[in-house]
Amino acid sequence: MSDIANILPPGDDAGAPQDQAVRWLAYLYSGEATNEGRANFSSWLDHSSINVVAYRNLEQIWRDMIFAGVQTIASTEASDDKPASNIVALESRSSSLSPLSGRRGAIAAMMAVAASLVLALGIWRLEFFDTPTVHAYRTAVGEIRTVSLSDGTRVTLAAESAIRAIFSNRRRGVELVAGRAWFDVASNPAKPFTVLAAATHIQVVGTQFDVDRAPDDVRVSVARGVVRVAPLAGPATRNDGVRLVAGQRVLSALDGRIGPIERFDPARAAPWRTGLLIYRNARLKDVVAEVNRYRVDKIVLADGSLGDMRITMAVRADQTETLLLGLEATAPLQIDRTPSRIMVRPKR
Amino acid sequence: MPDKLSDGVIPTSLDRHRRLFLDRLYRDHIGNLVDWLRRHYGGGPPSPEDIAQTAFTKLTALDDIQRIEKIKPYLYATAVNVALDEIKWIKRTVAFSEHELHRTGHALEEITPDRVYEGREELTLLSQAMEGLSDKQREIIRRSRFLGQTYARISAETGWSSADISRQLSAAMVTIQAATANGSTEDK
Asked: Could you tell me if A204 and A225 are in contact, meaning their C-beta atoms sit under 8 angstroms apart?
């Protein structure tokens, strides 16, 4: 079922004109725009000339993207075209064209330069027509599984976790859809490996790191090598990212904002891979979210304020009942059990 | 499919030199272009052969076409636009968008050799910005912009929700717009 209701066009108070223009473009080119929606778009344009300029500039970019994307074909498809190394040769051939006079000569020179630029742009070798292969992996409750991707990268999935690997000739990308995963990335400097978790974008060449998509944030912990973590909207500008080395971790909010860098012992990274769940001063809601991935009967916090209670504990993933026993024994909490779930309440 | 452009694809009124040039251009590229169109847009209708020939015909209208040493990007971009123009909802949306901009006193520019020259910095920034997108955003752009797929189809084929697709595409356009506006070109 289409959830088109969630991509409705912006209202009057939907931010700056540029932001509204982006949402209008995303709406108009969704394939789901209605006559009413288009009429609202017309009204939005009529509301302000700034709106018109904002949309016009965006639509121009949208149109130009075709030409930019097609550069790939000019530089990568086997044919009479030679890739970027021929820029100099092309320019020298251009200069050997018969001299032309007047406007025709100027046009010829301009087009020769334009042709050079086509190749120069081709250096970027965009591969928008390089159809990627997509593979999805998912683990069940309590299951920890390691999968090998086609490039040799090994990914260990925690319980109730899911990834989607999108690989093309020049790119390697994985989306952490849910849960937690440990990445042992096969080194390939020519083919960066990226991980997307909520609005957090992680780029590496070859390294080992853990990504935990928790309820309120994304945690990236590096055990070996170097990774770059940036908000999703940031990869192109790279203004907001941080560089992590072994023994460093960051928490980023679900909107991609990145917190301060923290230190940890990389030798003890991701013990969950061996079935051990260790928490030091962790929020109870994060503990419960992870432990629940290893349980059929889920634990529920009766009071949202309990979620921020700090917990230090170690339990085996296949013996999470010990968490409940520990909570009852050491925290001001009581456990109420029903056939379908386990409720954690403040002790009365 | 005719062997030569002169076999019904271009006007016979063109001078011999230009006709020979176009014939050679056609022979050099038609096979790869048709294969490529079939690979990405399927067997039609319209057929890849029809799209390719329409693209060639449009290209013949370019002034001084013989002076463009690397015609291939223009040819393929033209073919992509021809293919997208055959998708009814895309054609309707493009026409609506152009009409609204015209109505409010604005217009969009086509890609031409002189525009590539004059807008070289902007196009380079655009290329870099597109290169910097996340893989998920690139895949959504590929499907939405280059293949003309609706969110519903993208959702059906990838499992991503329409709302997620909309958010990702919006974020991608914000990134691209910011990069092209600010001229931010930090090295990868």
From this structure: yes
Q: Which CATH class is domain B113-187?
A: mainly alpha
Which residue in chain A is spatially nearest to B33 when comparing CA positions? Answer: A73
Which single residue is written with the structure tokens 């890609």? B111
Q: Is the pTM of this model over 0.80?
A: no
ipTM of the complex: 0.88
Q: Which of A128, A148, A178 is the last residue of a domain?
A: A128
Give yes or no: residues A152 and A255 share one domain. Answer: yes
| Structural domain for A36, as ranges | 5-128
Range 79-138 of B in CB contact (< 8 A) with A: 80-81, 89-90, 93, 96-97, 100-101, 104-106, 108-109, 111, 113-114, 116-117, 120, 122-124, 126-138
Calpha distance A319→A275 (Å, rounded): 10
Each residue of A184-213: pLDDT tens digit?
Answer: 999 888 888 999 998 888 988 778 999 999
Q: Which of A46, A61, A131 sits opposite B126 (nearest CB)?
A: A61
Tell me, what's the pLDDT at A223?
Answer: 93
Residues A84 and A191 in one domain: no
CATH number, domain of A248, equals 2.60.120.1440
Q: For residue B80, give the 3-state DSSP assignment.
A: helix
